[in-house]
Amino acid sequence: QVRLVESGGGLVQPGGSLRLSCAASGFLLNTAAMQWYRQRNGEEREWVASVSPFGGATTWLDSVKGRFSISRDNIMNTIDLQMNSVKPEDTATYYCTSQGYWGQGTQVTVSP
Fold first, then answer.
1. Which of 2, 34, 52, 102 lies in disulfide reach of 57, CB 3.0 to 4.6 Å?
2. CA distance 1 to 66
């Protein structure tokens, strides 16, 4: 059974950093394309980043490019979203997804 579980959200000050993690079960993360999305209150879900299988090439939403990065731990079967230089507009619930499966999301709040 495929399952995705995000963790690591919380409150962070503008300019700070936060690391989100997505733990997968039921499949190997490095064999499937993965995406991170986010959803601000009252808005539609927004694509943030994609990671290709195997080689792990990434593509990014322009507004997070250069501030966010992705790392994959093939032993733990997790994929992390490192968020640096965060801004208030990064406040959202963040989701990881793969093959049509979604996690429950983790809330990130950027506020002084």
1. 52
2. 35
Tell me the two tokens of residue 46: 């927004």
Q: Shortest CA distance to 94 belongs to which of 26, 27, 12, 2?
A: 12
Residue 31: helix, strand or coil by DSSP? helix
At 22-78, the pLDDT tens digits run 999 999 998 999 999 999 999 999 999 999 998 889 999 999 999 999 999 989 999
Written as six digits, the tokens of 90 are 């990064």
How many helices (DSSP H) and strands (DSSP E) are in the chain? 0, 11
**Tokens describing residue 94:** 């963040």
The residues with which 80 forms a beta bridge, in sequence order, are: 21, 71
The one-letter amino acid at 92: A
Q: Within a 13 Å sphere around the CA of 32, how many CA atoms are in the beta-carbon half? A: 19
Q: How is residue 78 annotated by DSSP?
A: E
Distance, CA of 19 to CA of 9 (rounded, Å): 8
* Residue 91, Cβ density class (10 Å: 0-12 exposed, 13-18 middle, ≥19 buried): middle
